[in-house]
Design a protein that fits this description.
By secondary structure, the chain is α/β, with parallel strands linked by helices. The chain is built from 13 helices and 15 strands. It has an eight-stranded parallel β-barrel with strand order 1-2-3-4-5-7-12-13, surrounded by five helices. Strands 6-8-11 form a three-stranded mixed sheet. The chain binds beta-D-glucopyranose. Beta-D-glucopyranose binds next to loops.
């Protein structure tokens, strides 16, 4: 465990933990089907052959989750609302209860409205899905808006586009490579329409959660620099530029559907804050002629780039390198690129997968990343909050239950889905009590 106390964070800095509906709720029999249910039924789609039908059973056990959050002393809980559940009779009742229980425990509810579990009948390749999303958001806001103050529209449109529609390793499992780009645009349009719907319903604190990975060229060779630049455009700027500048960067603008240009005013609707999900940087070079891999993800040889291992770093169970300074780089980089167009930032996800209850590796990871965040604050970046991914071990998408990101261990073999706080849970609780809030 790191010996030095962490530096204090500014008064009012929001401390939270994140989860998502499909990854924790279970109770699949009490909702409509999502694209993930369909995908999980395909043999070989999930590494351990599991499904999210029960997961952490948080639908039935959400009170235990609320107690765990309160026990940590967190200010906020980022969970997601399942669109397929809202589409089923009484589906919003669950979120109604969750919001009430969070508020009673003194924890601010921060719902994400789309975290990848699209109703099975819908398809992000269709532009109309954006309008359907806005109509669903109106229903959720009408029910919860009297108590929910902070909203997140969409989670990581890049991963949902590329993993789900370009490479086919996530639901819905399409392998369209560059033809997947309209899926990104339709999610961004959905986001903009949702911001408008939420504001019309009186919401005053609206953001989005976008993944950001600093992209490092593998060498200074011209080809490697160009490949890394394109990768950065595709993974980062193709999302942050339209959201914050109202335009697509060169290289992806051409890949967007007809008429995308005219939607950019909606896409770039003013945000109250911009959420950053950070895990690790990417080391990128020109194609090598063969496949390359990032953790468990294979990058096809026909891509105009290759990804490389970042050497000399500890690795998480997923094989991702631990690079805390990448978080400082992301936050200062956004400030430098977007300047006065950038709203306050919030780290909406950051965390790591490690096995075991005595998770000293996770403590070291969180300690180092909180220091890295603090360095961005010292450099003058306006960051207002930090959410750990994740409160609980959960259904880690195509990895099933093999990757454990939780501060709390979940026994997936027990019918009760027994929750046991890990060493990192006690560590974070003590840090919040003893140093992180010292200036309050
Ligand atoms: C997603 C989470 C996921 C986490 C770890 C993010 O890409 O938003 O749902 O569990 O990373 O892979």
């Amino acid at each position: 465990m790191a010996a030095d106390p962490l530096p204090p964070f500014p008064p009012g800095f929001l401390w939270g933990a994140s989860t998502s509906a499909h990854q924790i709720e279970g109770a699949a029999d009490l909702r409509e089907r999502s694209v993930w249910d369909v995908f999980e039924a395909r043999p070989g789609s999930i590494a351990d052959g599991s499904t999210a039908a029960v997961a952490c059973d948080s639908f039935h056990r959400h009170r235990e989750d609320v107690e765990l959050l309160a026990g940590l002393g967190l200010d906020a809980y980022r969970f997601s609302v399942s669109w397929p559940r809202v589409d089923s009779p009484g589906g919003l009742d669950h979120y109604d209860r969750l919001v009430d229980d969070l508020l009673a425990a003194g924890v601010r509810p921060v719902p994400t409205l789309f975290h990848w579990d699209l109703p099975a009948a819908l398809d992000w390749r269709e532009r109309d899905t954006a309008a359907r999303f806005a109509a669903y958001v109106e229903r959720v806001a009408a029910r919860l808006g009297d108590r929910v103050r902070t909203w997140i529209t969409v989670n990581e449109p890049a991963e949902h586009t590329f993993l789900g529609h370009a490479l086919g390793v996530h639901a819905p499992g399409h392998r369209m490579l560059f033809e997947a780009l309209p899926v990104a645009h339709h999610q961004l349009l959905a986001h903009g329409l949702a911001v408008r719907a939420l504001r019309a319903a009186g919401a005053a604190d609206v953001g989005i959660a976008v993944s950001h990975a600093p992209t490092w060229p593998v060498s200074e060779r011209k080809e490697d620099l160009a490949a890394a630049d394109f990768y950065d455009v595709l993974m980062n700027r193709a999302f942050s530029d339209p959201l914050l500048l109202g335009r697509y960067p060169e290289g992806v603008a051409e890949l967007m559907p007809d008429g995308a240009e005219a939607d950019l005013e909606i896409v770039s609707e003013r945000l109250d804050w911009y959420g950053v999900n950070y895990y690790a940087p990417s080391l990128v070079g020109a194609p090598t002629g063969g496949p390359s891999a990032y953790g468990t993800l294979d990058v096809p040889p026909e891509m105009p780039f290759s990804v490389h291992e970042i050497e000399g770093r500890p690795r998480t169970d997923f094989g991702w390198p631990v690079v805390p300074e990448g978080l400082t780089e992301v936050l200062t980089g956004l400030r430098d690129r977007y300047a006065d167009r950038l709203p306050p930032l919030m780290v909406t996800e950051n965390g790591c997968s490690y096995p075991g209850l005595d998770d000293q590796d996770r403590i070291a990871y969180l300690d180092a990343h909180l220091r890295a965040l603090h360095r961005a604050l010292e450099a003058g970046v306006d960051v207002r909050g930090y959410f750990v991914w994740s409160l609980l071990d959960n259904f880690e998408w195509a990895e099933g239950y093999r990757q454990r990101f939780g501060l709390v261990h979940v026994d997936f073999d027990s019918p009760e889905r027994t929750r046991t706080p890990k060493a990192s849970y006690a560590w974070l609780r003590d840090q919040l009590r003893d140093c992180l809030r010292a200036q309050r």
